[in-house]
Amino acid sequence: MKAHILLVEDNAIILGATRLVLSKENYRVTTATHVAEAVERARENPDLDLVITDYHLGGGGTGRQVITALREIRGPTFRAIVITGDTTSAVHAFDGDNYVRWLCKPMSSAQLLAVVRGFLPHPAGVADPNLVTP
């Protein structure tokens, strides 16, 4: 089994489709539909490697809140991919953060998988070519 991904999406159809795409590539996928559930899943699954979250979640929650909460549990370098169709300045809160990637809707399965593959943490001792070092 490949990496363990937490997928946070409030739309059941998109959640199911995205989970299927990731599972077919042998990623272990745990799901949540809102911020509090994402935090609960992160506490239950200490082996998570990455979170993929929609930016606008039901109930007024955001992907930004998901990332902030998970980083309180997992540390400031916990990796996140944010999926959004929103281009307002609010979604750019993590611009310059080397541990966050953005994907714009609509996107293909191939685009999602390419970003996931290139962004997952590398095993100890293997340099990560995606990160910028000062």
Number of domain units: 1
SSE pattern: EHEHEHEEH
Main sheet summary = 5 strands, parallel
Distance between the termini: 33 Å
Q: Largest beta sheet: what is the strand line-up?
A: 2-1-3-4-5
Structural class: alpha/beta
User: Any idea what the shape is?
Assistant: globular
Low-confidence stretches: 124-134
Proportion of residues in helical segments: 25-40%
Strand content: 15-25%
Determine the mean pLDDT: 88
The Rg value, from CA coordinates, equals 14 Å
Number of helices: 4
Number of strands: 5
Detailed description of the structure:
By secondary structure, this protein is α/β, with parallel strands linked by helices. Helices cover 34% and strands 19% of the residues. It has one domain (4-119): Response regulator (Rossmann fold). It is built from four helices and five strands. A five-stranded parallel sheet has the order 2-1-3-4-5, with helices on both faces. Strand 3 (50-54), helix 3 (63-74) and strand 4 form a beta-alpha-beta unit. Helix 2 runs parallel beside helix 3 (63-74). Mean pLDDT is 88; it is low at 124-134.
Question: Summed up, what is this model?
Answer:
The chain is an alpha/beta fold and 134 residues long. 34% of the residues lie in helices and 19% in strands. It has 4 helices and 5 strands, in the order E-H-E-H-E-H-E-E-H.
Keyword list:
134 residues; 34% helix; 5-stranded parallel sheet
